[in-house]
Amino acid sequence: NDKKLDYEISRLNNNQRKAVIHENGPLFVVAGAGTGKTKTLTTRIAYLIEKMNVDPNRILGVTFTNKAAKEIRHRVNDLIYPNQMGAWLYTFHAFGLRVLRENAVNLNLGYKNDFTVIDEDDALAIIRDIIKKQNIDAKKYPPRMIKNFISNEKTFIRNIDDEVVRDVYDRYKLELIKEQLMDFDDLIVYTNKLFKENLLVRTKYQTLFTHILIDEFQDTDKVQYEIIKLLNNENTFVVGDPDQSIYAFRGARYENNQLFVKEFGAEVIVLDENYRSTNNILKAANKLIKNNNSRTTDKNLVSSFGDGVPIVVHLASDDFDEVRTVTNEIINLTSHKYNYEDIAVLYRNNHLSRLFEHSFMQTQIPYIIYGGISFYERKEVKDILAYLKVVVDTNSNFYLKRIINTPTRGIGNVTINKLEEYANFNNMSMFDAIDYVKFSAKTANSLKEFKNIINELKEKIEETKELVNIIDVLFVGSGYYEFLKEETDDKAKERKENIMELKNVFRQGDWNYEGNNIEKIKQILDELALYTDHDKDNQDLNVVKLATVHQVKGLEFKVVFVVALEDGLFPSDRSYMDPFELEEERRIFYVAITRAKERLYVTNTQRRMVYGQIKNNIPSVFLREIKNDEEKILPKKYSRETINKNTSSDDFKSGDIVVHDSFGKGVVVEVKDDIITIAFNVEYGIKKLLKNHPSIKKE
Ligand code: ATP
Ligand code: MG
After folding, report:
1. Residue 669: how many other CB atoms lie within 10 Å
2. Least confident of 5-19, 100-114, 299-313
3. pLDDT in tens, 369-379
4. Which of 371, 395, 406, 452 lies at 20 to 30 Å from 77 by C-alpha?
5. pLDDT in tens, 292-319
6. Where residue 628 falls among pLDDT bands split at 50, 70, 90?
7. 36 lines ligand 1 (CB under 6 A)
């Protein structure tokens, strides 16, 4: 144990070591991608426990995604197993959940500590329900939009100024409390509220933690920053890279970096050697990020390896050509030097995965997609888990409503509404109300049958020796098995497989948790509730990864393809006129490039089918920015720049008809300095564009 840690510490460079063994006082490790920030953080955790005899229970380590949290646990585990046990190594959400599990009742809002966490879909369903009950026009107020407004208000991004939305928000809040539910935002926002308003609770956690360590600090938003500040720990250790701040759209605050140094009076350590990528890759990254004016420090990444192979830029003729090229190259790479797991294909938006998925299927390249429909969002999985939630807590009306008629057993909406009204009025659960409300004989029978199912499931689940068995118990007992048996298509088979897949989760629960069955189940359900971007738990398999850039933050791959580098896609069209957005897009591309260890491919295409229409696309401005004279271009090199050169850029005037490569025909409404306002088809509306942008031509 000790030897391994000693060895790892001896291999660190001076500044890394300085950060690892830093004694007291706040510290900010600020450094570019791949410079070993996460490694420094995990080694420090191991060092504190192993060498400084810090009690692991008094260390809090926080990061952003489940994958990253898992990686941190894994790395610390690797260094000092099993002495890391008890350390709080979580995402912000999981940390909030743990705090609220111990203190939600102290919020004085009516929450008990055993509330249930709901996912995005469930939250939307509740909002949809409110909209319906209040007779609100869902076209004018789409549930997703309302959810965003609510989320923005909760996390201090923007206040709600629409009365209808405010009313929905108030009802939503009450409904959640009544049903003992919290959404993801609540886990953070209520933790903050608790720390802010409750001196006892705050003091408890202030004294509990001797050390707090935060990874990916550049992505903290205002609420998260407040939480860290309220914990007021003199050994707060944060690592981050402002160039990789890519969550502004969710409220991440660039200024937190400076704030931390100022308000905590933190010492700053800079790391500058990159241990991940070759110099050719880093040169591209350096060149790119130089174009961001808002950078506070100009740092150049230098590789501790050699130059490596040149990066490859491929300009395809259309999207099929792009996919074919990537597919062939993967076949090529995996036929000698590389495994599938070494390779990632990254894009700006989820919808771009479809053609790659199709092609990989045809050529039998094994792959997984990060963050498609997550495993836990599938209907059958949610249904089975909902059964379990009702078994564990029959007061959970929300989940009871989900399954009372799934599979169908003749309990209609009228019955459910009646049951709910009675339960609300008499302050009891819907489950208990079943015994009191008068229904027709047939309905009453169905309801009784449902109640029996739940009671029997409960008995069996309490008795079973191994948790893994409960999936079979639920599958059969819920009626799901019978229901799927009657359907013989592939879908039904897949559904059955998904339910069976849950067995793996519960088998691990057998090992990882303590207590009786119900207690163990509660812990597993908590863990599952926080899964957002996990597709099963198979990221360790030998498969190619398809992912958006946001989903691979902090990760690394030997080979990276970044695809669809086209104007309007990457950078996305939101950033046409907004320099702030364009800089954010550039940081996203920077994150993408810096995932690559050995080989980097960047591709785009001239023509692409977007939402059923073929569009001529212009190469992304970022391609020009990373350009290197010695870069190698795959055959069929084709420069679009000459073709798109705008020859008549200076003489636009109001009333001119123009053609834009992506938006089609439009009329010039205004020309002012460098900016030209054009009215396109209703589909695109009015756009402000740079006058001499190569995508605009006079007709
Ligand atoms: P990102 O900004 O992408 O999150 P990071 O700064 O957190 O990157 P790490 O993931 O910690 O970087 O490290 C990048 C790679 O470099 C890892 O494979 C890590 O093991 C390796 N590494 C870090 N420091 C050293 C070192 N001193 N010697 C050898 N390898 C190192
Ligand atoms: Mg990292």
Report:
1. 14
2. 299-313
3. 886 666 777 88
4. 371
5. 988 877 788 999 889 999 999 999 999 9
6. low
7. yes
For strands 544-548 and 367-369, give the pairing: parallel
32 is in an annotated binding site: yes
Indicate whether residue 35 lines ligand 1 (CB < 6 A). yes
Burial class of residue 637 in the structure, from the number of CB atoms within 10 Å of its CB (0-12 exposed, 13-18 middle, 19+ buried) = exposed
pLDDT over 80 at 162, yes or no: yes
Mapped onto helix, strand or coil, the DSSP state of residue 681 is coil
Give the C-alpha separation, 315 to 634, whole Å. 8
Half-sphere CA count of 420, side-chain side, radius 13 A: 18
Average pLDDT, the chain: 89
Pairing of strands 596-610, 613-616: antiparallel
Report whether 299 contacts 289 (CB < 8 A). Answer: no
For the CA of 12, the closest atom of ligand 1 is 27
Q: Any residues with CB less than 8 A from the CB of 487 and at least 6 apart, and which?
A: none
Flag the least confident range among 186-200, 336-350, 567-581. Answer: 567-581
- pLDDT at site 22: 97
- Ion ligand 2, residues whose Cβ is below 5 A away: 37-38, 554
In this structure, which residue's CA is closest to atom 24 in ligand 1?
36
pLDDT for 643 beyond 50: no
Q: Which of the listed residues 39, 299, 302, 598 should we mutate to test ligand 1's pocket, taking the one with most ligand atoms within 8 A of CB?
A: 39
Whether 275 is in the pocket of ligand 1, judged by its Cβ within 6 Å, is yes
Residues whose CB falls within 8 Å of the CB of residue 370, separated by 6 or more in sequence, listed in order: 533, 535, 539, 545, 546, 547, 548, 551, 552
Residue 39 CA: nearest ligand 1 atom is 11
Describe the strand order of the beta sheet including 696-698 as a list of residue ranges: 686-690, 675-680, 664-672, 657-660, 696-698
pTM: 0.82
> Is 68 within any annotated ligand binding site?
no
Least confident among 10-14, 172-176, 296-300, 438-442: 296-300
ipTM of the complex in this document: 0.99
DSSP codes, 129-179: HHHHHTT--TTTS-HHHHHHHHHHHHTTS-----HHHHHHHHHHHHHHHHT
- Does 36 appear as a known binding residue? yes
38 is in an annotated binding site: yes
Amino acid at 276: R
Sequence-ordered list of residues with C-beta below 8 angstroms from that of 66, at least 6 positions apart, any chain: 91, 530, 531, 532, 533, 534
Among protein residues, the one with the nearest Cα to ligand 1's atom 26 is 12
- Which residue out of 275, 587, 591 has the highest number of ligand 1 atoms within 8 Å of its CB and is therefore the one to mutate? 275
- Catalytic residue ranges: 37-38, 215-216, 244, 595
Cα 38 to averaged position of ligand 1 atoms, centre (Å) = 7
Q: Which of 38, 217, 271 to mutate to test the pocket of ligand 1 (most atoms within 8 A of CB)?
A: 38
Residue 8 in contact with ligand 1 by CB distance below 6 A = no
Length of the chain: 699
Q: Where are the alpha helices (DSSP H) in 411-570?
A: 413-425, 430-433, 441-463, 470-477, 480-485, 490-512, 517-529
Kindly state if the Cβ of 148 falls inside 6 Å of ligand 1: no
Work out which ligand 1 atom sits closest to the CA atom of 591. 3
The ligand that comes nearest to the alpha carbon of residue 69 is 2
